Amino acid sequence: MTGPRYSSRRWIVVASIFLLAFITIMDRVAVSAGKAALAAQLHLSDLQFGWVFGAFTMGYAIFMVPSGWLADRFKPRRFLAAALCLWSLFTMATGMASTLGPLIAVRLLFGCAEAGAYPAASRALYSWTAPGERGLALGLMNTGSRLGAALGLTVASYGILWLGWRRCFLLLGALGIGWALWWLLWYRDDPSLHPAVSEAELALIRGGRETATKEASAGGWASIVFSRQGGLLLFQYFANNFTLFVVYSWMLPYLQDHYHLSPARVGIYAGLPMYFGAAATWAGGGAVDALFGRGYRGVSRALPGVVGFSIAAVSVALAAYAKGADAFVVLLGLAVFGLDFTIGASWTVCTDIGRERTGTVSAAMNMMGAAGSFTCSLAFPYFLQLTGGAGLFLILAAGLNVLAAGCWLGLGARPRLARAGAPVRE
Q1: 10 Å Cβ neighbour count for 8?
Q2: Contact 69/123 with Cβ under 8 angstroms?
């Protein structure tokens, strides 16, 4: 006798979401790679460019929860295709800006359009993956974003040198529109409607789903978000993004200005921490699933969070006292590793407590992350102007990471999900 024949179409969905995350962040960090060229041509100061970075995060935060609700309402197939086409057009429009006002407006609209990407993607992965695979799938989604940042900073730096910053943004927008067409043609919101999904794979995807849904909160999404667990989840993501966004936005121009690196070299240096992050999102997601598969419900979520934020806190604090560019980059790389080791757990908890409302719950968490990014985008240049260096800002970030590690101790205290048939251990 042979066992059931499994298809593997769910991993095509995971790969598509990986590529989506790659494009999303590459579009986002390109403005950091182009900061020197944009600032020179448009005559912008560091404080003015802080508002360019901040405009994106403001739009991203404002539209996050509405976008998550729309993703739950209209499902990921239509929502993601439409959103990606829209933000790709705003990416192209970034390359057409000629003064500060239009540039801020375009980046604000770009943030609004990108806001629902990760909530909708997590909703798609909830529909297409089994509970025991979800940590890895969500970790790989974030691996795509980190590789997008790492390669995006490097590729955009070279692209701007060869093509100019305006043409670079036009090419990035075209890439996003291509992905949207693929998604619309291939993806289905319900795996049972896809002709290539076997009965065995469908049964695997739905395994434990019915039991898990019964365990979900009976209230609406607001009762989840404003619960004790929801508050802890939101704060730790604020702390995560507060630290992480300085690497996405200000690290490249900071290295260029304070360590006097060449444009080509600074693109490579600024991208290096993201390779640490890519490894961490994969490892963190795998750790979540491995612990969960052995029946450690709360520990599978809490341990990656505590370990990751502890690594980040120590690394960021040491980076505040780094003397050279090499040490500074390596320490921030270790900090990014720690921060991203927590990501799989964060997004998995959203699916644990959100279920069919995963899009909205993950949007609320991501909104708090965007608030952390917005705070960072404005705070860093002000700290830099006041103190002449990044040290005090990094000490503040280290303190937030310590508090975030404490949040995960609380999040692991009352786990919400158990694998059907698994022995329960805390």
Answers
A1: 11
A2: no
Residue 145, domain CATH: 1.20.1250.20
- Structural domains in the chain (count): 1
Residue 81 lies in a domain: yes
**How crowded is residue 15: how many other Cβ atoms within 10 Å of its Cβ?**
12
**Residue-number span of the structural domain to which 130 is assigned:** 9-411
Alpha carbon of residue 229 to chain centroid:
20
Task: Return the structure tokens found at 363.
Answer: 């949007």
386: how many CB neighbours lie within 10 A of its CB? 10
Chain center to CA of 264: 26
What does the pLDDT look like over 25-84, one tens digit per residue? 888 888 888 888 888 899 988 888 888 988 988 888 888 888 888 888 889 999 999 999
The SS3 call for residue 200 is helix
Tokens of 204: 């695997």
CB 309 within 8 A of CB 236: yes
Q: Is residue 424 part of a domain?
A: no
Question: Which residue bears the tokens 């960021």?
Answer: 316
At 255-283, the pLDDT tens digits run: 888 888 877 687 778 778 888 988 998 89
What is the number of H-type helices and E-type strands within the chain? 20, 0
Interatomic CA distance for residues 145 and 281, integer angstroms: 10
Query: Rounded CA gap, 399 and 158, in Å?
Result: 36
Residue 379 lies in a domain: yes
CB 241 within 8 A of CB 369: yes
Per residue in 304-347, pLDDT (tens digit) is 999 999 999 999 999 999 888 889 999 999 999 999 999 888 98
| Domain contains 425 | no
